[in-house]
Write a structure and sequence with these properties.
Blueprint: E1 30-32, H1 43-47, E2 52-58, E3 67-68, H2 72-77, H3 82-96, E4 109-115, H4 119-130, H5 134-137, E5 142-148, E6 163-168, H6 175-178, E7 181-187, H7 202-217, E8 222-225, H8 231-240, E9 245-247, H9 250-264, E10 270-271, H10 284-298, H11 302-315, E11 319-320, H12 323-331, E12 335-338, E13 346-353, E14 359-366, E15 380-388, E16 395-402, E17 405-408, H13 411-419, E18 425-428, E19 435-437, E20 444-446, H14 454-460, E21 465-467, H15 468-482, H16 503-506, E22 511-513, H17 515-522, E23 525-527, H18 531-539, H19 554-557
Parallel strand pairs: 1-2, 1-9, 2-4, 4-5, 5-6, 6-7, 7-8, 12-18, 13-23
Antiparallel strand pairs: 2-3, 10-17, 11-23, 12-22, 13-14, 14-15, 15-16, 16-17, 18-19, 20-21
Helix pairs in contact: 10-11, 11-18
Length: 562
């Protein structure tokens, strides 16, 4: 039907993020403008996986239901109701997919309601209409965003939770109103006369960057209507960092996004060589200090690193997890499965809950890595990130750190987690502790000359892409024949030199490790946007290798595109 895949994200600095190529866009970033004018309203945009679909509504005297059209003249010719055109088809899709709008349970759908008649009575009627469909209004995968004739911002708070607002980019909003705002929009013609068939003038680009930054600084995605609607214009808008691409040409935009996707992707679920720090997870001052700290930490300048970590924590103070937050952390602690002959114990575990986004980072510190006895890190640091729904009652996604990469769990793995008390499954490699989500055998990654196993991978394949099953075969071959990297190290004299057993034994992940008990035993749980800083300054008295703070997917939950 459509290809909704998340692929490589490129980290951009806070200064240049709006000018640089942002994350690869998918059809989830596409907005079907005036969708009711399509030959198949709702269905065409839906089948292409569009993340936002627009319906203009009228409330008219003598008409019992809300009508969909662009003008009154259109209503005179054809009376089409909001419920039959959009709500009932959406409900049908939700029921087909177990309560989610799409097959991919992580993809959300926005219905943008453009109010054409007086705001207050029209919205009252809209609320009455939506109340008939609790499967839609009580579902966090669907949102109804109000555009067009809006009520005053002071009355935003009076509407039910499922009614949110598309704010006007040129206006200012108070903090209370912003709590109900999920997007900011504007007419592109208010900023530029650009036609989209020639390069965007430099002066206009500067003006647009400032406007986009206004929305992003408020952690709100941005959309421009009235924009040129062609591939050249779409590309320019994506380069600027516009979050929703507005179109009347559904198939053409879908084709452009899917082709862009195919040209950029490494695998359906992988970030190759992930950046260590996210530019969106903390405020700029904390992020800058944290970046400096991580650079010192990587160079083993630990005193300087600790000083910079202290600065970062000053700008973004952490707090101890409350009893309720500890319950949430323990509730969602992933299930860990190791090989029975695993030589290293789980030495420590740290859990850090993000203060704003519904994310928890579970840091695992194994006694060591079989290949690195001499690296001056008396542990092997691995991470599993769990993404929750906004209410923090259910797992939404999870991600694992795997030898410098980030693997995103497939939808089936998320469903499995929900069936096991919302606890994600991670399989831990023998001796090396790379974590793999359920369904790991079907995940592809790019080969990398930095991998110790690279020569063994190349023995069986000349492709730049390797399946994780075959990647593990290469690791097994190395460890079972050549052995680990430092056979003569005095620090490894009590370690097994090789893996003894079959490949089946090597991937026999049947021994559970109780992560929740490890967290309870020392109580290493905190709320912070900074991971490495908290671990360094609050928990571990020994050095550890710095790893990625947060996957860049967290930016979506903070309303920022990077």
């Amino acid at each position: 039907m459509f290809n909704r895949l998340i692929v490589i994200l490129f980290l951009c600095s806070s200064v240049g993020s709006l000018m640089a190529q942002p994350a690869v866009y998918t059809t989830a970033n596409a907005h079907s403008h005036n969708d009711y004018e399509q030959s198949l309203p709702f269905w065409e945009a839906y089948q292409h996986g569009f993340g936002s679909i627009e319906a203009d509504i009228f409330l008219l005297n003598k008409e019992p239901e809300l009508l969909v059209a662009h003008t009154l003249e259109e209503i005179a010719q054809n009376k089409r109701r909001l419920d039959s055109l959009y709500l009932l088809p959406l409900l049908q899709c939700m029921r087909q997919h177990g309560g989610y709008p799409f097959v991919d349970v992580n993809q959300k759908l926005q219905i943008l309601i453009d109010v054409k008649t007086t705001a207050a009575p029209t919205l009252q009627k809209l609320v009455e209409t939506l109340e008939k469909y609790p499967e839609l209004t009580h579902n966090t995968s669907v949102q109804f965003a109000i555009s067009g004739n809006r009520p005053s911002q002071d009355s935003f708070r009076l509407y039910p939770p499922y009614i949110v607002f598309d704010a006007e980019l040129k206006k200012d909003y108070n903090n209370e109103a912003l709590q109900k705002v999920v997007m900011m929009s504007a007419n592109l013609k208010d900023y530029t006369a650009w036609k989209g068939t020639e390069p965007l003038p430099a002066q206009d680009r500067t003006v647009l960057i400032a406007a986009i930054r206004k929305a992003h600084d408020l952690h709100k995605p941005v959309r421009f209507w009235g924009a040129p609607d062609n591939p050249e214009a779409w590309q320019t808008l994506m380069e600027l960092g516009v979050d929703y691409i507005n179109t009347d040409h559904i198939a053409a935009l879908s084709d452009t996004l899917n082709r862009l996707h195919a040209s950029k992707k490494t695998s359906a679920t992988t970030i190759q060589r992930s950046a260590l720090y996210s530019s969106c997870a903390c405020n700029d001052s904390a992020s800058d200090a944290n970046k400096a700290a991580i650079e010192f930490h990587q160079q083993r300048c630990l005193t300087d690193a600790s000083k910079r970590y202290d600065q970062a924590l000053f700008f973004a103070p952490p707090k101890e997890a409350s009893p309720e937050e500890q319950k949430i952390i323990l509730k969602f602690a992933p299930r860990l499965m190791t090989v029975p002959s695993e030589p290293f114990k789980l030495k420590d575990a740290v859990a850090i809950m993000h203060p704003s986004a519904p994310w928890i980072a579970y840091h695992l510190f194994w006694e060591d890595d079989i290949d690195f006895p001499d690296d001056n890190d008396p542990c092997d640091h691995e991470i599993i990130w769990v993404r929750l729904n906004q209410e923090r009652t259910e797992i939404s996604d999870y991600f694992v750190y795997f030898h410098g990469r980030i693997l995103k769990a497939c939808p089936q793995a998320v469903i499995d987690a929900r069936q096991h008390q919302n606890r994600a499954m991670a399989f831990v490699q023998w001796g090396k502790h790379g974590s793999m989500p359920l369904g790991w055998k079907d995940i592809d990654i790019l080969t990398d000359t930095k991998d110790i196993e690279y020569p063994f991978i190349r023995e069986n394949s000349s492709s730049d892409t390797v399946n994780l099953y075959h990647y593990n075969e290469a690791i097994y071959k190395k460890l079972s024949t050549k052995g680990h990297q430092s056979l003569h190290s005095p620090f490894a004299k009590h370690w097994p030199q090789k893996f003894t057993g079959s490949f089946h034994d090597f991937i026999n992940f049947s021994k559970p490790v109780d992560l929740s008990q490890a967290l309870r035993s020392k109580g290493y749980m905190m709320v912070s946007c900074l991971n490495n800083a908290v671990i360094n300054r609050y928990f571990l008295p020994y050095n550890f290798a710095v790893k990625t703070e947060w996957p860049e997917w967290i930016c979506e939950d903070l309303g920022v595109r990077h």
